[in-house]
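Input.
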Amino acid sequence: MSQEHSEQPHSARQRISSTRTPEERVGLLRALYERAILTWHLLWDRRVGFWPKLIPLLGLIYIISPADLLPAWFMGPLAPLGVTDDIGVLLLVLTLFVQAAPPDVVQEYLREMRGQVHQTSDEGEVIEGYAERLDE
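Output.
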């Protein structure tokens, strides 16, 4: 192999991933972990409807099923990269489920996970005042 071929520029994806700091990489893993924990809480919450709960169930069925978007025989020598479609489906399922869940419930769990306590109006400061009805 000549000197020219060994010094070819990396693809854009390789450059981006190689420029990430260890803190950024940990941040991505932490975000994935938090999304999984949030999904777990939402699955067991009665305020989340039946239909949104089907999203993670169908994703789990796909991941454990032998069917694959990128089968090993299709990938050839890159067969070990065949799990990338499963990871992509996992990320998609987690994101879709959180987006399909009621936003107020999602925010409640996010605050709880981050150690912030949400105060209800009974516990918080009361602001007194009056209102007038304006007829148009």
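The CA atoms of residues 34 and 114 lie 10 Å apart.
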